[in-house]
Amino acid sequence: MNGVTASAGLNVTALLAAIEEASFIVLHAAIYSNFANSEVGETIRQQLINGRLQQLDIIELKPHPAWQQEFAAILRPQMPTDSVEQLFVESSIWGAQLQAEFALQVNRSTTQALPLQPILLVGDSVFVGQYAHSTLTSAAGLWLQLHPPSLGLKPHMLQHWYRNGSPTELSGNYALAISRYVEECRQAAAFYAHSQDSVTRQLEEGNK
Q1: Can you tell me whether residue 96 is helix, strand or coil?
Q2: pLDDT in tens, 53-75
Q3: Structure pTM?
Q4: pLDDT tens digits along 147-194
């Protein structure tokens, strides 16, 4: 279908092509060690250097103890938990290095929100996979690439919704469906900050 493309595994060729055209990217995929040591990470860095990529938001996961081990087994089913933890460290280092080098373009946020699916907002494209209890990782699962302008949305709408929130009233089933992915990224990016604010308020009230 025009505007919706399915692939067995993440279509890296399509992702690279989208990155090369994007001025705005949001990464919400738990860990990025595969990106850090691949053509994807290098392409992102080159786009930051040449100024084409003006905003890169990296949402980093800080797993909650209640589901940390289960999610580690979902992310890397063949890997010991402590090795998965090292991948989180590598991801954080990659994000920190990009932020240090491109402070005006790169934003990082940490979330403890329960992961639902890996989502990449890349310019006017959405790449979305699924987490699953399986011997295979999400990279080997079914991925969808959505192109909102081909589905009735205006160009740059993903960026607008991510910054400002999607309208309360949307017309069209695809607009509604796509807005869910953007809202997931928005809420995940804000989750940790909101949680910290809540804890701070509770402490302040307890000290009164």
Answers
A1: helix
A2: 999 999 999 999 999 999 999 99
A3: 0.90
A4: 999 999 999 999 999 999 988 878 788 999 999 999 999 999 986 444
Residue found by looking up tokens 């890349």 in the block = 122
- HSE-CB at 119 with a 13 A cutoff on CA atoms is 25
Q: Which helix (H) or strand (E) holds 95?
A: helix 81-101
Amino acid at 194: H
The DSSP-derived string for 12-74 is: HHHHHHHHHH-SEEEEESS--HHHHTSHHHHHHHHHHHTT---EEEEEEE---TTTHHHHHHH
3-class state of residue 108 by DSSP: strand
Q: Contact at 8 Å (CB) between 16 and 40?
A: yes
Residue 100 has which token pair?
């240090």
**Pairwise CA distance, residues 51 & 168, whole Å:** 33
- Determine the Cα–Cα distance for residues 76 and 128; give it in Å rounded to an integer: 18
